[in-house]
Amino acid sequence: MELKTTNNQKEYARSYQIRNREQIIAKRRKYNDSHREESKERSRKYRILNKETIKEKKKLYRAKNHYKTNAQKIAYCAIRDGNLVRQPCIECGDLKVEAHHPDYSKPLEVIWLCRSHHRILHNEEKRRQYEPRYRAGNKRQHALCGG
Length: 147
Ligand SMILES: [Zn+2]
Ligand SMILES: [Zn+2]
Description:
The protein is mainly alpha-helical. Helix content is 71%, strand content 5%. The chain has one domain (45-147). One zinc ion (ZN) is lined by residues 100-101, 118, 122.
């Protein structure tokens, strides 16, 4: 008896859904629309409330980049003045090299790398930064060396 009731309820719900299909879809769409506005509003409020934090972050980013260009300028001047001598790429010995700064606060401490090895190094650095899995050192690391 009870089972029959449950079935009837299910049946009823199904037929209700079929009968009111359009209405249900419209309702859902309306909900989504208002929700979208809500989330837009939320991010707008976030921007207002965190104006200072966002500003601070931008400033920090700019300062960091300034550091970087500064280090490059100093290294360039040092090369020009003969205080810093270009070395072949530490990976492949290519003579066309770029100066890589492991630490921008030490502009004269550079690693010499050819263009492609320099790019590889930066790509790996980025990957390590964004993929904590790499830090753990798992299978994916072997995909890089093929072993
Ligand atoms: Zn190289
Ligand atoms: Zn670099």
